[in-house]
Amino acid sequence: MHQRPFGRMPFTVTPVGFGAWQIGGSWGEVSEADGRAALNAALDAGMTFIDTADVYGDGRSERIVADVLSGRSGPRPMVATKAGRRLSPHVADGYTAENLEAFIDRSLKNLAVETLDLVQLHCPPTEVLYRRGVFDALEALKAKGKIRGYGVSVEKVEEALKAIDYPGVESIQIIYNIFRQRPSHLFFREAQAKKVAVIARVPLASGLLSGKITAASTFASDDHRAFNRNGEAFDVGETFAGVPFEVGLEAVEEIRKLVPADQAMAAFALRWILMADAVTVVIPGARNAEQARANAQAADLPPLSQAAMTATHDIYERLIAPHVHHRW
Length: 328
Description:
Elements: E1 4-5, E2 12-13, E3 18-19, H1 32-44, E4 49-51, H2 60-70, E5 78-83, H3 97-111, E6 118-122, H4 132-143, E7 150-153, H5 157-163, E8 169-175, H6 187-193, E9 197-201, H7 224-227, H8 245-256, H9 265-274, E10 281-282, H10 289-297, H11 306-324
Parallel strand pairs: 3-4, 4-5, 5-6, 6-7, 7-8, 8-9, 9-10
Antiparallel strand pairs: 1-2
Helix pairs in contact: 1-2, 1-10, 8-11
């Protein structure tokens, strides 16, 4: 895979990275052995960006990342983590300099490094984005050498636009996929103008855009696709991209007709995201080595045709936008 500059930071990354939520938890049973195998397969395929968080498996994901990297030679990939969701309750007043430093210190230990490449505020309450002191605290942690840079993972386009008002924000992580097209309307242009890196998450809409989920599919009790179907645990937009399950399945059947016979729908959906020049890296997850290798191959697919892009936009406008466009 080729490399892309990561915004203004001194890193280049592959357009497809490794999303490490699945190897942490909330996706049903994924053994540590499978998690390590998935990450090793991703790195063997050339991926140079890993996205994790301190709450993925209460640190399990970060520790697996550290363990895998400790056993590998060669250039180290860029590793991004997140902070903030350990707060209970998760409220704006919890985003203090002391709490942020404590979270970062814990991630430094979990990841076995002296400096974090990138720390992202983890979908903070919107009010946090209007508190300059939070970003001053991140600047102070950067000055201490505990982080190289910082960004924000957001739920809404409006939050992304506010976050990049702060000149120190290096990256925005946002949901962008065939079912969540609004970021491309304004935010992408603004991010490019400010040379802010864009990390596209939930690229397969929690598996819907893999084309492998059906109306008969069931999910384990510890899989967010079961316990967060209506936003019971966190923002409902994180599960199936906020699209009602039955509507998503209907749209998938229309998308299936656009996928070339020699391609998997998941690869088609990932390549669709990479058609946007503003996207720096997309971070699909993987439960095993086979999925990780398949994800990596999406970066080498030819560009999608204009007809396919037009058709996916039409499907979004007809079926999906009424449910999501105004919310996120």
